[in-house]
Amino acid sequence: MAFQYRSSPSYLQLQAGVTGKWDCCRFVNRGLRNAASSSTTASKKKRAGLFFRNRCSATAMSASVRSNSSRSADLSSTWGKKLVWIWTENKQVMTTAVERGWNTFIFPSTCRDLATEWSSIAFICPLFIEGEEVLDSESKRIAAFSDITSPQQLEKLQSWDDLAQIVVVNLLDWQVIPAENIVAAFQGSQRTVLAISKTPSEAQVFLEALEHGLDGVVLKVDDAKAILELKDYFNRRNEADTRLNLTKGTVMNVQMVGMGDRVCVDLCSLMRPGEGLLVGSFARGLFLVHSECLESNYISSRPFRVNAGPVHAYVAIPGSKTSYLSELKTGKEVIVVDQSGVQRTAIVGRVKIESRPLVLVEAKGDSENKTCSILLQNAETVALVSPVGGEGCGETAIPVTSLKVGDEILLSVQGDARHTGIEIEEFVVEK
Fold this sequence. Notes:
Layout: E1 2-7, E2 10-15, H1 30-37, H2 41-70, H3 75-79, E3 83-87, H4 91-99, E4 104-108, H5 112-119, E5 125-130, E6 133-135, E7 141-148, H6 151-158, E8 166-171, H7 176-186, E9 192-197, H8 200-208, E10 216-220, H9 224-240, E11 247-267, E12 276-282, E13 285-290, E14 305-310, E15 314-317, E16 321-324, E17 333-337, E18 343-365, E19 371-377, E20 383-385, E21 397-399, E22 408-413, E23 417-419, E24 422-424
Parallel strand pairs: 3-4, 3-10, 4-5, 7-8, 8-9, 9-10
Antiparallel strand pairs: 1-2, 5-6, 6-7, 11-14, 11-18, 11-22, 12-13, 12-15, 12-17, 13-22, 15-16, 17-18, 18-19, 20-21, 23-24
């Protein structure tokens, strides 16, 4: 989407890119920047100040438009429109936030000099709290501001006749339930609601309340580490919006190998047919191991479980990383993937390690010469996900007890080398 902001005598065109990712908009005015590069210092400051004021207005417009569109969007696209503003007086926090694309800063009305100083060294959008309003540098109202300590105050806030399009709330002593109450209260109101958060974990509560969460957060911190943690959280969410490119693989060998310690991963989320975890013995290729969500004659379905493989195997986790199955424990996150490559994060609720008979499965991708392998428990409830319409015993998954040479399964082909779970470029031999 693009916004045009009128500023006599010419138009200033600011673009707000909505990419379907958890992030804030960044505004660039190349005309102003180019002109400033050939002007005097005074002229540069004047143009820069104009740029900041215009960008603040465009930010408000962007939030308004994005809020309206998100009401009819699905959950993932709603998450793709979250806003992050920063409230701090720490210069290191400011620079860390700007470097990661978060440019809107809130200041108390007494800190205008600090805002001016920071504006001279970075492209930021300064906003100021004045009573029950959030103002830009020209004292134009951008948002309403309210402390909330009771349901009565929330009802009073909703009843304001002149309530701004953007609302910043400060939940003083109550968090999870009130966050849900605010999401419910403003759902369908066409307003953008942000909550002040003092930690990244508190911000996560606000962003996920009632699945859709609030429209954004104001992170009030004095430690740059909090910026990094929240950005890492956003990156993990962004990754979940990215579809993995899964490769069709052909089974080359199926062989019983004896006993080993295998890992069952029980998640805090239910999985659907076609979903599972990416697991493998080698870094270069992970197999999509199906969950136990399918009905069986042998045991009741357990749609929260993946019988994933032995303790040594890699498993995909957020951040484009891997972990050993033996390292998983309650509270850690893994990536759940379906047949189409759609992925989401899930929290591990429990890990069970038991000695069971294992079967070795080796396969090659259609465009790869290297063999990938995985060891799995030899049981009817353990299966590999197959391509839709692929060669095998079913459209969704093939039990390892029925797997044979020539069957088609799904692989995630990756780099050959990893260090502490991070993909690196290095010569390595795995066999």
